[in-house]
Amino acid sequence: MIKTIEMLGELNEIQMHNLLMSQASGRLGCSVDNQPYIVPVTYAYDGKYIYGQLTEGKKLEMLRKNNKVCFEVDMVMNMQNWQGVIVYGTFEELKGKDLKEAKDIFYSQNYPLSTGNKVHPHEHGVNVRLDDS
Fold first, then answer.
1. DSSP 8-state code for residue 40
2. Most CB within 10 Å of its CB: which of 44, 75, 104, 125?
3. What is the pLDDT of residues 44-92, one digit of tens each?
4. What is the DSSP-derived secondary structure letter of residue 33?
5. In a domain, 27, yes or no
6. What is the largest CA-CA distance in the chain?
7. pLDDT score at 35
């Protein structure tokens, strides 16, 4: 059983937007046949859509069966000082021009965060877009 305590406050829309813009990793949640599944993902946010890169596997199989998803991002400074946001939307597998635009957004936001080691993008990765409206 999970017990909850009262929240200390709620974020307004601007604070939620700023939190999504400030982070690079979050958790993608999906469900198939009443079985929930959540995975950490690196993402980019352009103010309207959340873009992530996935490789073939369980999560992608589940997303193709049920495109209803949630995405969670948080920033924890300490137990009394933290923020979190959950966005609900739909998974969309991108192709062609949309895929190229998504990759440009994704890489422009995430490669400046790399450690200097050479990082090679997944050749067969799949980008996803969550509608946060």
1. E
2. 44
3. 999 889 998 887 888 888 999 999 999 999 988 777 778 899 999 999 9
4. T
5. yes
6. 46
7. 92
- DSSP H helices in the chain: 13-22, 58-65, 96-110
Structure tokens at 54: 């996935």
What's the Cα-to-Cα distance from 95 to each of 19, 32, 116, rounded to whole Å?
A: 28, 24, 29
Q: Six-digit token pair at 14?
A: 């601007």
Answer yes or no: is 2 within a domain: no
CA 129 to CA 44: how far, in whole Å? 10
CA distances from 91 to 21, 36, 50, 59 (A): 19, 15, 10, 11
- Does 1 fall in a domain? no
For 115, the domain range is 13-131
Amino acid 3: pLDDT: 52
Quote the pLDDT of residue 113: 57
